[in-house]
Target: Acyl-CoA thioesterase
Amino acid sequence: MDETATVAESYTEMTEMLLPNDTNNLGRALGGAVLHWMDICGAIAGMRFANRQVVTASMDHVDFIAPIEMGEVAVIEGYVFNVGRTSLDVKVDVRAENPRTDEERRTTTSYFTFVALDDEGAPAGVPELTCPTPEEEALREEAIDGRREQLTDIVDRYDL
Model:
């Protein structure tokens, strides 16, 4: 296993066309379908970073801020922005894209934590995160700040 890995090495982008099986009675994406895509994207980003199998440990609060309409393309992007000894934090963003007009809009963002596993299924060490470019450092800082802001909003919203 490499001692270090970069934000860029973990970057993952997936696309899904929203079809009837993943829509509600309004012709919009089911929340569960979007969460499923986000979990897969985050896991792939984690596996690319750690070069190991990963499993979902947690997912932070999710707000669905805009719908994805049937026939639109969901673009799901994820990257590792922080690591522990065996865990990886992954930011996952989703946006909707209308393939006929090229119009795009942000639909949701969440933060996942995955745990890397060895061949026996036990937690395994992960590489140290490095950000060799200013762009990678900016992505990392954006994710850290975004997660902090989201957690602060939850505390304020629920008066915790």
Remarks:
- Residues 32 and 120 are 30 Å apart (CA to CA).
- DSSP finds three helices and seven strands in the chain.
